[in-house]
Amino acid sequence: MNELSQIEMSVKAAQKMVGSATMQLDPEAIHHAENAISDAKDIMNRSNKTGVDQEFLTKQQQLLDQCEHQLSEAKQ
């Protein structure tokens, strides 16, 4: 699996966990969702960035930002 597909899979996993956590409003699920977002960001930060991949990486970052926003709204 290459880095881009690993990033995409980690972002999708974070999205699913956030969706589940915001529906359940379970503190443990929210914690796991926060960890999934953090893990996806770590993978993105470790990746070898090239100009060709920048649009893809920007989109993935936007998706993670949306996840964070959704999670913070659910915690209020």
TrEMBL record:
Superkingdom, taxonomy of origin: Bacteria
InterPro entries for the chain: Uncharacterised_YpzA (IPR020314)
Protein name (Swiss-Prot/TrEMBL): DUF2564 family protein
